[in-house]
Design brief:
Blueprint lengths: L1 H14 L15 H7 L3 H9 L14 H7 L3 H9 L14 H8 L2 H9 L15 H6 L3 H10 L13 H7 L5 H12 L14 H8 L2 H9 L4
Helix pairs in contact: 2-3, 2-4, 4-5, 5-7, 6-7, 7-9, 9-11, 10-11, 10-12, 11-13, 12-13
């Protein structure tokens, strides 16, 4: 059981990672993709006025908006979103502007995607909603924003983990993850929903010596 848990943890570290740049992003790049990556709003508007396809894909399947999101190019993303770019368009590894912005804590772009039709039920290649990697990575305001938007707090990914479990298992137990656990609990997260090995959030917190998180869970009825 211990060995299985360790292997699961190691695998999760590899699987939960969202690449900073999607593989092959430089392949078949259009001028619109290049302008988005450079945060060149004037060129973006010129190209769109000339009739270029706003959701054209590069070699990795990324749209110009996803390229802008990769680099947290806020002005470029704003111009594209306001012009009608699809915030849910996924690349070859199932990242979308909405999902990537959530995972990386690109809060301004995330907020724009939420205001323009982000699919809250959409999942990444590991079956996780935007809330799960945001919780793991300690993006407090992103987690708060996603909860307020209505993302399901108890969604379980392919690893058998919820946002609460990832915040504990892959978090560092510091202030940011304490705040995230508190936010998730207050949002109604099931504090007794165990992982695939039957280990509960409370057991994980105790094993790691996360006393404050343990207290938050216990106060919420965890056992």
């Amino acid at each position: 059981m211990l060995r299985r848990s360790i292997l699961t943890g190691v695998a999760s570290l590899l699987l939960s990672a969202v690449p900073l740049v999607a593989t092959g992003e430089d392949m078949s790049k259009t001028p619109l993709h290049a302008a988005a990556g450079q945060n060149n709003v004037a060129t973006i508007r010129k190209l769109l006025a000339e009739g270029v396809k706003i959701d054209a894909r590069d070699g990795s399947g990324a749209t110009a908006l996803l390229v802008a999101t990769h680099g947290n190019r806020i002005e470029a993303a704003k111009a594209l979103i306001e012009a009608g770019a699809d915030v849910n368009a996924k690349d070859n590894i199932e990242d979308s502007p909405y999902l990537y912005a959530g995972a990386r804590g690109h809060l301004e772009i995330l907020t724009m995607t939420l205001a323009h039709g982000a699919d809250l039920k959409s999942t990444n290649r590991y079956g996780g909603t935007a809330l799960i990697p945001a919780s793991e990575r300690g993006h407090v305001e992103t987690v708060r924003t996603l909860i307020e938007a209505g993302v399901a707090v108890d969604h379980v990914n392919k690893l058998g983990w919820t946002a609460l479990l990832e915040a504990i298992i892959l978090g560092d137990g510091g202030k940011r993850h304490e705040q995230i656990v508190d936010l998730l609990v207050k949002a109604g997260a099931d504090v007794n929903l165990a992982d695939g090995d039957g280990v509960t959030p409370l057991q994980h917190a105790r094993t790691r010596g996360f006393a404050t998180i343990e207290g938050i869970l216990t106060a919420a009825g965890a056992h």
